[in-house]
Design brief:
Strand order of the largest sheet: 1-4-5-6
Number of strands: 6
CATH class of the domain at 2-37 and 114-244 and 319-411: Mainly Alpha
Helix content: 55-70%
Structural class: alpha+beta
Shape: elongated
Largest sheet: 4 strands, antiparallel
CATH architecture of the domain at 2-37 and 114-244 and 319-411: Up-down Bundle
Radius of gyration: 40 Å
Order of helices and strands: HHEEHEEHHHHEEHHHH
């Protein structure tokens, strides 16, 4: 079981996709922080000018020259400029955008935990389903073998006149039913093996019955409820999403406040005219912008954000109720699994004794062939019931462990390199440039 869970943790594509999603959400913090930094822009220009002009002279002076003076010239004006822009105050929009992004990152981390728990629970369930179905196939195969021997013995007894044709027909019918149920059990095993490969990443080998994790579980329902409230990622995701929506309200409201910005520019121009060789300009400009009316758009977005916050508050409440229901349900299933297993074990023991007795009684004519066949069927059904009860207990244990928020690789102590969600975040949160994403903290391929 431990190796299967470790393989699912490393190889499951759903979990690896969620890790990539978290890394993408991490970039929201870097994006929000970029609003606090200056922007620097460089520009350049070049042109070709061909100018022809005439200047009218004084008639009494220039008349002898035809009435005017003409001039012409070709210039190649060109230049460059550097502009630095810095927002000094933006109504706290950038500050709240950073807080909003950080809360979204926290929410996505909890979502990743939830996906991890779901994948590991699915892996544990797939594992015990294969174990159960393998056991059922073995029981069904043994049943076919026993019924085949029973049919042969019944035919031999029919040949010597000890039983009737009806007894032979009953034995034949039971063997045919056993072959059909064996085929169904083999099909179920194939389905379980396919699910195992889908979740864990490779086909199952020879699987052993997993040990109980009862020692990891809380001792009371109250303790389980407390742990679920504090550690279940469904609740924590909802809490961080609601927190993020509060900062979104503040960010949008910042658009109604004044903003102050600074712009510094250096410009150098060459060959602007035939008489000017170059021009050098340096300027620093401060701007104050006061929003007076935006057509009601910002106000509508503020109201919209507030209603989104109201929605997410209700989702926090719903998440808690959902987790409480899961904890109570899985606690009840787990508590009933013990008596169910003990009852199934008792049924198997009693049916073994009954089958032995019926066979002995059949030999002396006190029981019929049908009585023996019925006793064999009851024993088989009780054995399958015991296998299913053992499977249900394991699933109930892992389901409760997931409901209280602890079904993750580190808490289970799996021998794998753990994915660190903080490593990528620390690398990129203040990153100033670079187009290539950092290497993932864990090889997820």
């Amino acid at each position: 079981m431990e190796q299967a869970l470790a393989d699912a943790y490393l190889l499951n594509p759903v979990l690896n996709a969620e890790r990539a999603r978290l890394r993408a959400i991490d970039e929201q913090v870097a994006l929000a922080k970029s609003g606090l930094r200056p922007t620097i822009t460089g520009s350049g220009s070049t042109a070709y000018n061909n100018q022809n002009s005439n200047l009218r002279g004084r008639a009494n002076v220039l008349s002898s020259f035809g009435g005017g003076i003409g001039s012409s010239g070709v210039t190649h004006p060109h230049g460059y400029a550097l502009t630095l822009s810095q927002l000094l105050f933006g109504g706290f929009q950038n500050l709240n955008a950073i807080r909003e992004a950080k809360s979204l990152v926290q929410a996505q981390r909890e979502t990743l935990r939830q996906v991890e728990q779901t994948v590991l629970l699915d892996a544990a369930t797939a594992y015990v389903n294969v174990v159960r179905d393998q056991a059922v196939v073995r029981l069904r195969e043994n049943d076919v073998r026993v019924l085949t021997e029973q049919l042969k013995a019944t035919r031999d007894r029919f040949d010597v006149g000890e039983v009737t044709r009806t007894d032979v027909a009953q034995a034949e019918a039971r063997r045919s039913e056993a072959l059909a149920t064996l085929a169904s059990a083999q099909a179920n095993l194939k389905i379980s093996r396919a699910t195992y490969e889908q979740v864990i990443g490779h086909p199952p080998g020879t699987l052993m019955a997993p040990p109980s994790i009862r020692h990891l579980l809380p001792n009371s329902l109250d303790e389980a409820m407390t742990l679920g409230d504090g550690e279940n990622p469904v609740i924590l995701t909802a809490v961080y999403n609601e927190e993020s929506s509060l900062f979104a309200v503040e960010r949008i409201m910042g658009e109604l406040l004044p903003s102050v910005s600074l712009e510094a520019q250096y410009e150098k121009a060459f060959d602007q005219s035939s008489t000017i060789s170059d021009i050098e300009t340096t300027s620093v400009t401060g701007r104050l912008s006061v929003p007076l009316y935006q057509g009601g758009g910002v106000s509508a977005r503020v109201r919209q954000a507030k209603e989104t916050n109201n929605q997410l508050k209700r989702e926090v409440e719903n998440a808690r109720l959902s987790v409480h229901a899961d904890v109570i349900s899985n606690w009840g299933i787990l508590q009933s699994s013990g008596p169910a297993i003990r009852s199934a074990e008792a049924a198997v023991g009693a049916n073994k004794i009954a089958l032995t007795g019926v066979r002995e009684e059949e030999k002396v004519g006190q029981r019929t062939t049908l009585d023996v066949l019925d006793a064999q069927r009851e024993l088989l059904n009780s054995q399958i019931g015991l296998v299913s009860a053992l499977r249900d207990r394991v699933v109930a244990e892992y389901s409760l462990y997931s409901a209280i928020g602890r079904m993750d690789a580190q808490t289970l102590g799996l021998s794998v390199p753990y994915y660190d969600p903080f490593e990528h975040y620390e690398i990129i949160k203040n990153k100033l440039w670079g187009l290539a994403p950092p290497e993932p903290p864990l090889a997820d391929n």
